[in-house]
Amino acid sequence: MPTRTILAATGLVLVAVVAGAPFVLNEGFLRLATECLLLLTMAQMWNLLAGYAGLVSLGHQVFIAFGAYALFLTSGWLEVNPVWVLPVAPLVAAAVAAIIAFPLFRLRDAYFSIAIWVFAEIIGAFTMKSQAVGGTSGVPLATSELIDFDWFEPIMFWLAGGLTLVTIAALYRLMTSSFGLGLMSVRDNDLAAMSVGVDVQHNRFVAFVLSAAGCGLAGALSFMGNLFIAPLAAFDVNWSVYMMFIVIIGGIGTLEGPILGVVIFFGLRELMTGPLGLTGGWYLVGLGVIAVIVMIVAPRGIWPALRDRIGVRLLDVHRTAPRPAAASVLPSVSEQTAG
Amino acid sequence: MIWVETLINGALLGGLYALLGIGLALVFGVMRVVNIAHGEFMVLSAFCAVFLANLFPTVPPLLMLIPVIALSFAVGWIYQAVIVNRVVTSPDPLSPLLLTFGVSVILRNVMVEVFGADVRSLQVGELSRASLEIGGLNIGIMPLLTLVLAALLFMVLQLILRHTEFGRIVRATADRRDIVRLSGVKPDRVYNYVMGLSLALGAIGGVLLAVRSSFTPFSGAERLLIAFEVVVLGGLGSFWGALLGGIALGMAQLIGLKIDPNAGLLYAHLLFFIMLLIRPSGLVASKV
């Protein structure tokens, strides 16, 4: 059971690692690390919704696209360095999520999942039609001449690393708070949660908006790194596929799961498309096969299965139904919530 | 007059869309699973039909429907037995959703790698261009046949589910999976047949849609979304509602294409979304 001191010390070490990494790694590695960290943030956000609020989104690419387009357009209008308008991305994504939540939240389970996918398709189609945002051919980052390219890769990495650390720390705080406990009670049994006074719709709404905001910011950073955005890439359903596979393989409803998932995701990609010389299509097939096997063999994902076997707990906010075997887990959570 | 023609053609297209939706509705109705891979299985059946048509160029391409339907039934049976049955009783309603989504990603990318990402279609020669002239309106024979076929299939399906022993078993399993065991029914076995039937129906829709418009390995998502919209618009569990939902979507799409030629499915999606806002229970109130 990690105490606050251990967590704080680990956090400080990680901050130091992120700060120092650009001086050690070469540019290719740095870019790969940035990509990993951004996808990890997106996966954590998808996990916040699916693993804790029980809402599976197959249309989360729409928030990535909104965040990225918001950054590109605002930076172009105001003619300022894109880094300074980054806050626009999560705000726009959150605003869209808050509006779209009203029709979507009438739907449950698979209906929610597919309706948000349809919403993403509609926005994608309108984006391709609208010449104001570049139509099908997309837009380059208009203010790219304001960027200092000597420091571009390190800055991107620092932003991605900072975002990842803040996200994980914030999610840990959130999940050990009473809000997080309420959220998880809604996921497990919304009737029971309601009967003890948890505001189900409110909790879901907050998780949805937070998740959209995080994806918007990570998406904006991701496309800012490319200096270019096109609708086919921004509204690609594969964003949701990646987030889902990372979370499912690593461990849904845990904070450590997506970290393990990202390692497997990129490890497999580098292995299959590198030494094995396979195409991206076969890589996705391989990833899909692993995900399907994990879902059948260990439905909660690899991390929870591993954790139960070796007994290691890192960022544990997990609690199980009150069975005798789980008795040792319960007090620790109530301790955290009380504290 | 041109608008009347558009509406009629939209209604005929709707018959095809209803066919896409009915397989999805059947599986959802019986086992409460939305099979996200439904679209990919439809595209797979279209690839099979194109492959067979190239293999036997002398046989009329539409006759390829027969082996493709049989194959799809077998694939569905195996898919359910090997994969879906493992999560169908999971207490977490998200498990089947995530699992079938994973399967759809696998299928899509295997198709990309095996068949390539080229645009294809199933050529049926003269039949695809033949049309009837009724009172100055130009009505395609192929779409007309499709709508008739869809209505017939719905009727047969309704009859099977209402009046045969298999139908009674399926309905009983859908109602109480645990209780039917007392009568010696194996629910998993029933699910295998239902998934086979669902993919066989999907194959009919998939092959006929491949005649009407071209497809790529990526078309599965589009087909799934249409199928899903048909089911939701029609109201859950209502076959005739699905037909109505399909017709509404078909009309919306063709009217949209008249206004805006490169709209694709945008207006069908918009209709679905607007209906979701004003009438979440579907066009036809659902009966259980």
Automatic annotation (TrEMBL), chain A:
An example Gene Ontology molecular-function term: branched-chain amino acid transmembrane transporter activity
Top-level taxonomic group: Bacteria
Pfam family, one: BPD_transp_2
Compartment(s) where it occurs, according to its Swiss-Prot or TrEMBL record: Cell membrane
Keyword Transmembrane: yes
Its membrane topology: Multi-pass membrane protein
Signal sequence, start to end: none
Gene Ontology CC annotations of this record: plasma membrane
Keywords from the named record: Cell membrane, Membrane, Transmembrane, Transmembrane helix
Transmembrane segments: 84-105, 110-128, 155-175, 205-229, 241-268, 280-298
Protein name according to UniProt: ABC transporter permease
UniProtKB/TrEMBL annotation, chain B:
InterPro entries linked to this entry: ABC_transp_permease, BCAA_transport_permease
Topology within the bilayer: Multi-pass membrane protein
Key word Cell membrane present: yes
Localization per record: Cell membrane
Primary location recorded for the protein, binned into one broad class: membrane
Pfam families the UniProt entry points to: BPD_transp_2 (PF02653)
CDD domains, alphabetized: TM_PBP1_LivH_like
GO biological process terms held by the UniProt record: amino acid transport
GO molecular function, one term: transmembrane transporter activity
Sorted UniProt keywords: Amino-acid transport, Cell membrane, Membrane, Transmembrane, Transmembrane helix, Transport
UniProt GO cellular component terms: plasma membrane
Parts of the chain that traverse the membrane: 6-30, 37-56, 62-84, 137-161, 190-211, 231-252, 264-285
Family per record: Belongs to the binding-protein-dependent transport system permease family. LivHM subfamily.
Protein name (Swiss-Prot/TrEMBL): ABC transporter permease
Taxon lineage: Bacteria, Pseudomonadati, Pseudomonadota, Alphaproteobacteria, Hyphomicrobiales
